[in-house]
Amino acid sequence: MLLLALDTTSRHGSFALARDGSVLEAVAVEAPDGFGQIVFQHIGELLKRHGVALSEIDCYAAASGPGSFTGIRVGLTAVKAFAEVHAKPVAAISNLLALASLAEGRYRAPILDARRGEVFAAVYDEQLRPVVHEAAVSWPLFLKSVADQDVTFIAQTPGIFEPGAAAEQQPSPRWQYTTAREPLASAIARLASARHARGETLPPEAADANYVRRSDAELKWKDPA
After folding, report:
1. CATH classification for the domain delimited by 2-95+182-206, as one of 3.40.50.2000, 3.30.420.40, 3.40.190.10, 3.40.430.10
2. What does 28-95 look like in DSSP terms, one character per residue?
3. Is the pTM value of this prediction over 0.85?
4. Planar angle of CA 12, 157, 38, nearest 5 degrees
5. Mind listing the pLDDT tens digit for each residue in 86-144?
6. Structure confidence by residue, pLDDT tens digits, 24-68
7. Which residues make Cβ contacts (< 8 Å) with residue 83, sequence separation at least 6?
8. Are the beta carbons of 13 and 6 closer than 8 angstroms?
9. How many CB atoms lie within 10 A of CB 70?
């Protein structure tokens, strides 16, 4: 089963091609002006290197957010269009879930910059089940929600943990900080491949964005049953 995965949700995006759940190649791409003008070029180059045609892809996957509103739409629109033309399914994967899958530890807290003094954050357990649901929150509020748990924070770049961000808060000796060691598209490809194997992919018209803006729900720690 061949799967194409995209992450165009920030200036640091990526593309990946996977076969039967194993990533054949993942390419990190920086696009300070956005991916709208270059997404098809990079997809074409990736597939050409592996001698694969778009019609041979069995499932298309994209990062569904949170992230740049425009960036989210670029990736989702591309895979939905491909899937519609070739009558194939789609997997829309949360950036936070994908990031959590690249961490280790009992509890993983993926962190993305939401700007305006906030972060997009969540906590997942070892089985990637949500413990603290995705939200756009301030650092103090999010750190209060994780309390004194054994949490590994993971980000795509180390800057978010530098002074002025998480490091400015009172740390717990039970917290660890790490950064992703591979492009997010790799994680998206593996998660999407697993969904495809379980029959949990979607028709293209059903795939939707995951903007994760602030909600009225209170952040609560809740161990999965």
Report:
1. 3.30.420.40
2. EEE-TT-STTTHHHHHHHHHHHTT--GGG-SEEEEEEESS-HHHHHHHHHHHHHHHHHHT--EEEEEH
3. yes
4. 5
5. 999 999 999 999 999 999 999 999 999 988 888 999 999 999 999 999 999 988 888 88
6. 999 999 999 999 999 999 999 999 999 999 999 999 999 999 999
7. 60, 89, 90, 203, 204
8. yes
9. 12
